[in-house]
Amino acid sequence: MSDQSVLQFIEYSIIGIASGSIYVLAALGFVIIFKSSSVFNFAMGEMMMFGAYLFFMADQQLGLGWMAGLAAAFAGSAVLALAIERGLLRHLLGRPAVVLVMVTLGVGSIIRGVAALLWGPNVLQLSEILPRKPIFIGELLIPGKLAWGFVGVSLIAAGFVAYYRFSRAGLAIRATSSDQVTAEGLGINIRGVFSLTWILAGMLAAASGIIAGSVNGVTPQLGLVAFNVLAVVMLAGMTSVGGACIAGLLIGWMETLVGAYLGAAWQNFLPYLVVLLVMVVKPTGLFGENRIERI
Amino acid sequence: MASASTTLSAPASLGLRISPRVQLGLWLMLGLGLVFFPAFAGVYFVYMASLIAINIIATVGLNLTVGYAGLLSIGHSAFLGVGAYVSGLMWLHLGTPLLVNVAGGALAAFAVGLVFGIPALRIKGVYLAIATLAAQYSLYFIFQQWTSVTGGDRGLSLPRLDVFGMGETGFYYVAIAIMVALLVAARNLFHTRIGRAFIAVRERDYAAEVLGINVVRTKLLAFGLGAAFAGAAGALGAAFLRIVTPDQFTLLVSVFFLAAVVVGGRASILGSILGAVFMTLMPELLQYGLTAVGKGADLAGLIAPLREIIFGSLIIGFLLFEPRGLVGLVERAFGRTETFDSRPEG
């Protein structure tokens, strides 16, 4: 390999890791819901997309500026998530996984339809909250939005992990995740925990959606692209918060490399190839607990 | 035989007390209605009827996997794709007749279904759902990228089919005949050991294993059979539309069939029929209703989003309020609720 191609490889790698950071937040949202209530939320991508649209609406359509946009996106996504949990999933507690999955697919379909009705099918550009100016490290050039997006994700993810590790609410979530019955017996309000995990997931989704949208724009189909997050969660092992962070970056890195060297079609396919491999080789994922039932 | 099977909730019997003679009469009338339908209905209705027949086949297949065996699949349309491509290629390169193509498509989809069912041996529930999602994207990728065989994004163009020298009407008869044959096969499957093993595995796989059912083989078979039905439907669809492209087999199409299963009624053949009819006609009715309401307004942009909203609402509404689907509603209308256990959830 010549110096030029090594340099290019490093550049692709940095871009890939930075774009993978978008997966991290959505994957964290998946993981905390799944851990606490065993609901696999197929509407996560649509929650991302909706958060990005709320940002667009408050920021540009209502002209309130990007800070109001962020506030609207976080508050609106939290309310939406709470509504899904209280309005639907609470009534379906204890029903088979088949039912829960189909309900979240239905929710995703509704959100997609509503977004398309309200904002139309075309790509909307979010206003640029991330500086555009590229960053140079020696001879390496990193697009500004990606770099600052990565910084933003790192801060949010670090804040979330700290909250999850050190706050009382985080402790309650972890207790509920490891043993619902005991947690209830110790006086933890596990229904409150379910609502809390959904609210947190909604806000993580909104953050991830806004960052993804400010790089590529927003369409009602953004949620479908976010199905790739499933691959991240599979690779991480469904229940691992730290694993979701590492797997998100890893998938983003591989995706960009594959896309750069083999073409865009391979880039879209790669996450699912990873899913298939993980399923066959190690269904618990890289960092998952060994609690998959096998028959 | 029939009464024994109702306790297992398997076949389509509505639980109504109708004497066998009346039942036979009803079936005969329905059969005659189907035979003479094209003579009275216009081209559009024959077209819709053929489409419904194809969708019924695919929905029954998915119901075998999801409803009866309890294995969630969100990659069903990919198996339709396998059937469509294989039958299309057989027709283009071998020139085989339609029935052989349909059988070939079904067999190929069966084989591919078995391959992607292998993850089902090791994993359950949502993990399996993700495996089927991976199947969906993998097969789509192959349809799109294997250009030398599948024609890539442009797909395969098939010659015009002329069954019995009757054109569209001839195809309608073939589709109806295949649909009826497959419906009878699916119904009878649940009078056999294999079909009942599906239900046993769905309800309690540990207990099924203790009873001597080979759970692994049963799950694989449930997966493969569902895919085979999809393959047959895909092959018929290819002959019907005369074009096969990757975009006919996306995730949204899989969700369409899942919606048909849920809306119609899980673990019910009649439910699959009702669900497929309802979901196929719904967009048409929506379009019709919208054009009637808002004349001249720009409606084209509304239809697709409204469809998605209605799909989602129907899935959620039925799961929350009538988990047995349209079949449950029909039974309730006839005043026979909960007389036998047909809750697919145990």
UniProtKB/TrEMBL annotation, chain A:
Q: Which GO terms describe its cellular component?
A: plasma membrane
What is the membrane topology noted in the UniProt record heading this document?
Multi-pass membrane protein
Indicate where this protein resides in the cell.
Cell membrane
- Pfam families xref list: BPD_transp_2 (PF02653)
Q: Which GO terms describe its molecular function?
A: transmembrane transporter activity
TM stretches of this protein = none
Ribonucleoprotein among keywords: no
InterPro entries reported in the protein's UniProt record: ABC_transp_permease, BCAA_transport_permease
Instruction: Quote the PANTHER family the UniProt record gives.
Output: ABC TRANSPORTER PERMEASE PROTEIN (PTHR11795:SF451), BRANCHED-CHAIN AMINO ACID TRANSPORT SYSTEM PERMEASE PROTEIN LIVH (PTHR11795)
Kindly provide the name given to this protein in its UniProt entry. Uncharacterized protein
Organism name: Pseudorhodoplanes sinuspersici
TrEMBL record, chain B:
Query: Where is the signal peptide, in residue numbers?
Result: none
Alphabetically ordered keywords of this record? Cell membrane, Membrane, Transmembrane, Transmembrane helix
Q: Which GO terms describe its cellular component?
A: plasma membrane
How would you describe this protein's topology in the membrane?
A: Multi-pass membrane protein
InterPro entries in alphabetical order: ABC_transp_permease, LivM-like
GO terms for molecular function, please?
A: branched-chain amino acid transmembrane transporter activity
What subcellular locations does the record give? Cell membrane
Which PANTHER family does the record cross-reference, listed alphabetically?
Answer: ABC TRANSPORTER PERMEASE PROTEIN (PTHR30482:SF5), HIGH-AFFINITY BRANCHED-CHAIN AMINO ACID TRANSPORT SYSTEM PERMEASE (PTHR30482)
Can you name this protein?
Answer: Uncharacterized protein
Q: Which organism is it from?
A: Pseudorhodoplanes sinuspersici
